[in-house]
Request: fold
Amino acid sequence: MRNRRTYQAIAATLVGAIAAMAGLTACEPAPDTYVALGDSYVSGPLIPVQGSNPGGCLRSSRNYPSLIRSQIKATKFTDVSCSGATTADLFAPQDVQPGPANPPQLDALNRQTKVVTIGIGGNDIGFTDIVVNCGTSLPGDPGCKGDYVHDGRDELSEAIARTAPKVDRSLSEIKRRAPRAKVFVVGYPTVLPATGTGCYPRVPILPTDVPYLRSKVQELNAMLKARATAAGATYVDITAVSVGHDFCQVLGKWVESLVPTTAAAPVHPNAAGMAGWAPTVAARINQVVTT
Reply:
C-alpha cells in the first residue's frame, strides 16, 4: 500500500510539474476565442453595416473576420481591428472620430485566445499619404516615383525595412499574451493591376508609377511573410486570389478606386473583396487549427 501511495504521489508531482512548465492549471479550459487584429484592410471602412464600438474604427459586420468566424474552430469572436491602425496602436489606445478611443488591440488577447489573425503594416509605411501623393497626378506631371527614389535611396523600401522590427515586436507580444493561440498574418491583396501600367485617367496614377508602386506592395507582403515565418506564425497570402480584382476593373473589383462605385472607402476593400478572400483565410486557418 505504501509503495502504491508513493507511486501516486510521484505521478501527481510529475503531472503538476508538466502543467507548471506549460503554464497550465489542472482546471484550465481549452482556448476558444478568435481575435481579429489590424488596420482598415481588416476592419472594412464604410462597408455596411458599420459598428459603433467605437464608430471611428469603421469596423464592418461584413469584413473577413466576421465572415470566417463560423467557418473556423473557435466558439467566441472578438474583432478589435480599426481603420488607420499602425503597429503602435496594437500597444496603445488609438484616437478615432467619433470616439471613444479604440483600446490597445493587444488587450483583447488572453490565455483563452485560440486563433489570432492580424493585418498590419500599411499605415506604418504611410499608405494614405502615398495614395494621395500618387493618385492625383495630371498628365504632364513627372510622377511620384521620384519623390521616393532619389539620391541612391528608396524611401518606401526604407519604410518597409523600418516596419519589420515593429511587426516582430507585435508578434512576440501576441505570443506572450496568448501563448496557446495559433497566429495568422494576413497580407494585402492585389490593389494595382498585377501586370501592365494601370488605367489612367480612370485611376489617376501615371503609367510610369504603377510598376513601382506594385513592387512596393509586393515588397511589403514579402516582409510580412518573412516576419511571420521567423515568429512561428502562419502567413496567409491573399494576393493570388485577388488578381484580376484590382481597382482598375470595371466589373468584379475587390478594391475600390479613388472614386468608389460601391459602399467602401477609396482604395480599400469592398464587400466583394472581403467575401472573395475570406475562404482563403478560413482554409489556411483550418489547415492549422484542426480541433
User: Anything to note?
Assistant: The mean pLDDT is 93. The first helix runs from residue 2 to 21.
